[in-house]
């Protein structure tokens, strides 16, 4: 921890908060304080905004190849420091080291992907239908951006936003989640080392998010907001962005259905369930929340899933052989406890888990519930924990109706061996992404995002850079 920056990163310099405030960073596996980092206030946010605004014009004129090579160098640095970054992430967030190493690779890939997209920003030339004018289209950076990232993937959510912003020529103010500021600060240091000019990226760690973000959104100089987090906070930020008509990208909550039909390969389905449910201890917006299993295979599916979940080893993420680390904090664990208790009171059968262990840390065991009442609270709440809730269904139309009966629409999972059914059901699900016979959809080369209250816009893929670019149309008379 001694080599990890703990100050704010503004204008290329490491500085303390203007009022000297700091905030603790806790280890969720023990409850101990790892360190203290600067706790930014409105004055610090203004300084970060000033730095981003001042750097914008020159950064926008920087050659695409230069921006590309900075991202490529940052990619190589991240890959070379995989173990160091993984240990840092595990310390502040709790995920097992194997998962943390996987996230480092995932995070780095966003920089490699967008290093390649930086040199492919194009426009167009055409004669308009009336023949009087030529239309010259160019694409330019939207301007200074506010990036707000969550705690559950603290490195990858940073690179998924910073990568396209750098590639497009935008400057940034990054506000990471207060639970996991260290990964973002380490990322800022890496980008500085890779040659990113001063002021292009500014990082403000804070426990005073409202005081820091609202003035930036209402002030008119920030032209783009990219947010990943809860739907409730996203709605608040949208309202704050409206006054200055700030362009927004929102990656919000999810309530993913996991549908297992009677013709599914149960080995594939259980493997997929383990990934879709247990990635990051279930603390992911893509996590399978509602398991709809055809009545004819529900008992066998539940038995196999409970056996697999029960075999997972729970403990500190740094310990060898651990599969499941702690939840992010005691409030997050209390939420999971309450949701499970409510389901059990309504008649759910606990196949495995369901009891909070004694001792330090924010641990909760992998849990499988069968015969869950559709009225249970965990049916319309993001669980954000290692709990699989199984419900049965009898026919296709019924399960599609129930799967779509939610205000969210991020991702759905479908397991069936029938091609016609696979395509038909996928097309009818009201989601932005579908995992067909797989429990993993996230990939830097694919557009990530949802519909309904799961968000606006897409991150990653060929379209990810579009969120940070504007079109300009130039009319040129034909002579």
UniProtKB/TrEMBL annotation:
Keywords: Oxidoreductase
Ranges where the Aldehyde dehydrogenase domain occurs: 14-472
SUPFAM superfamilies: ALDH-like (SSF53720)
Annotated active site: 251
GO biological process, one term: gamma-aminobutyric acid catabolic process
InterPro entries listed in its UniProt record: Ald_DH/histidinol_DH, Ald_DH_C, Ald_DH_CS_GLU, Ald_DH_N, Aldehyde_DH_dom, Aldehyde_DH_Superfamily
One of the record's GO molecular function terms: succinate-semialdehyde dehydrogenase (NAD+) activity
Source superkingdom: Bacteria
Xref: Pfam families: Aldedh (PF00171)
Record-stated family: Belongs to the aldehyde dehydrogenase family.
Protein name: NAD-dependent succinate-semialdehyde dehydrogenase
Species annotation: Streptomyces ferrugineus
